[in-house]
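I'll show a sample.
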Amino acid sequence: MDMVDEDRARKVAMIEEFFRLSSAKDFEGFLALCTDDIHMSIPYQLPGFPDHADGKDEIRATRTAVDRYEPYAMWASKIEPMLDPDQFLVESKGDMVVRATGRPYRNDYVNVFRFRDGKIAEWVSYHDPLRQMVAFGLTELPVASVTSG
C-alpha cells in the first residue's frame, strides 16, 4: 500500500468513526475529527431545521435538532474516494424515530466530505426532505422565517 492509499484508508476510517460518534450523539467526539472552521451544509433541509453551520460552536448548537430523534442511528453504506485525495463521496443511511410523533424516520443520504490537514473541513449532506416531513407528521412545508434586511 502506498502513501496515498494509506492516507485514503485513514480518512475512510475517520468518516466511519464520524458516523459512529454522530449516532452516539457524541458531538465532542466527532468534532475532534474536524477542523475548527468546519463547514456543514444540508441543502434542501426543511425550514425550522439547521441547514448550515460554520465552526464547531455553531455545530454544537444544532444538537437540539438531533435530540428530536430517539433512537438516532446513521452509518456510511458506501465510501468512494474522488480524484482529489481530500474528497470523498459517501452514501449513508439513517434509521431513527421522531420523539414528538413516535414515527420512524428512515432516509438515504449522499454526502461530500472534504479534508484539510488530516481533518474533516467540510461536510455536505443531501437527503429526501419528504421522508422527514412524513416522519414529523407534516402535511405541508413549514413556513420559513423571513427577516428584513
User: Anything to note?
Assistant: The chain has one domain: 3-136.
